[in-house]
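Design request, tokens follow.
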């Protein structure tokens, strides 16, 4: 098969899944802050940390796609 197809699939899945996870994390974090506003600081810190890990997974997918393309 064509290498470009694998690159496209890698980046598509590698961008779609972290995007879904970031949206879900943000939704649940804001829901938790709405239920317990006193804990907003700790919830926000944990939410931002989890979002950073999701972004790292997207960057790993980009690196894998570049490796597939150029190797």
């Amino acid at each position: 098969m064509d290498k470009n197809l694998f690159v496209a699939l890698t980046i598509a899945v590698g961008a779609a899944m972290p995007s879904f996870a970031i949206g879900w994390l943000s939704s649940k974090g804001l829901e938790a802050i709405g239920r317990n506003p006193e804990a907003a600081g700790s919830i926000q810190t944990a939410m931002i940390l989890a979002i950073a890990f999701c972004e790292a997974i997207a960057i790993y997918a980009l690196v894998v796609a570049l490796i597939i393309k150029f190797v």
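Comment from the thread starter after seeing the answer: thanks! The chain has a mean pLDDT of 94.
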